[in-house]
Amino acid sequence: ALLTLTRKRGAATYAQTLQNIPETQVTTLENGLRVASEESNQPTCTVGLWIEAGSRYEDAKTNGAGFFVEHMALKGTKKRPGSAFEKEVESLGAHLNGYTSREQTAFYIKALSKDMPKVVELLSDLVQNCALEDSQIEKERGVILQELKEMDGNLADVTFDYLHATAYQGTALAHTVEGTTENIKRLTRADLASYIDTHFKAPRMVLAAAGGISHRELVDVAKQHFTGVPVTSKEGSVPALTHCRFTGSEIRARDDALPLAHIALAVEGPGWADPDNVVLNVANAIIGRYDRTFGGGKNQSSRVAALAMEHNLCHSFEPFNTSYSDTGLFGFHFVSDPLSVDDMMFCAQGEWMRLCTSTTESEVTRAKNYLRNAMVAQLDGTTRVCENIGSHVLHYGRRIPLEEWDARISAVDARMVRDVCSKYIYDKCPAVAAVGPIEQLLDYNRIRSAMYWVRL
Signal sequence span per UniProt (predicted)? Predict the structure, then answer.
């Protein structure tokens, strides 16, 4: 019977797959907490809290507080001190995880569907009763400081932090998520308690779930455990986000002792809800991505990948479209040998100009199919679905159905790609971050002059 079910599932068409996705139900409790879920026949479920909090809500003195709080929240509560919280999660055979980004914080648990009520109670305890014991704070302080040292060795992450620092200099988006070493050393229990009191409020939270659960039961359990979450902090509501102005500029951290150069270049992109994002994602799919470990050689459909392979321009490259509430970074990152930096930058910027001026329908069709495949991959597993629900409700106010995404993708044509790319890329001042042996990276003015073509 299982084999038959598997064969039938595999035989479903793409259109049938989109149509058969269960509806996402959303209920708002009296205190403003949004409860959203997608019910399926899975024996497991993932339940999580997505919170509108992150490094963008911090200032220079408190940068790193959110990341510190994430660590502390997983280390026990007033009701379950020390390792008791972890042991209770493990006794369910469940998996607990969390993360902090620039605009959101998440905690989620994957468990058996029958344990959903217990999971919700654990999550409510985690955000409402974080212990913040002094001894545990000092222990985690050491752990975080060690993490910061290890992160310094990840040059890709370092490059992207530099990119934010130069693109949004002087604003909250310039902060790293993890904070500075100096801040982590001096943050106090009062700082962490103030962060929780300010941001962990019901209207800023989404309780999301996916798997073999009932939405009505989820709402009932949420009412039992989350009605005590206040609407505002003691000081009142959190101030609205201020716009983080994008600046065309650069940061160069030259170190000739490193074997490879990491370069990231970006222009200002749109915010989460802007429809231009779909078109820009199609453009990035046209550019493609490349790593030396890939097969295909110079016959790859991506022009940049084919050139990189044929002329040994880089070890890897990948375009990105990072969105925030009201702004974003649209660009590419590549890793290359010191003597190939200029050639790879010339190739990548040339592809940007080609997208603005001569994108073809055939490559748009290929890119749209790639995006559809990536979109359907979001259905794999309850955790990915749950994260999709939580992020969407937090950023868009609703979960956008895959059918709607598919319609938006289908509407894109070559003219739209050329127009939207010209809007964001053509003759714009980019932000540049470079780390490693970057002597060959041209002067910023030369990079800026490659953001347009003079055609006779």
Answer: none
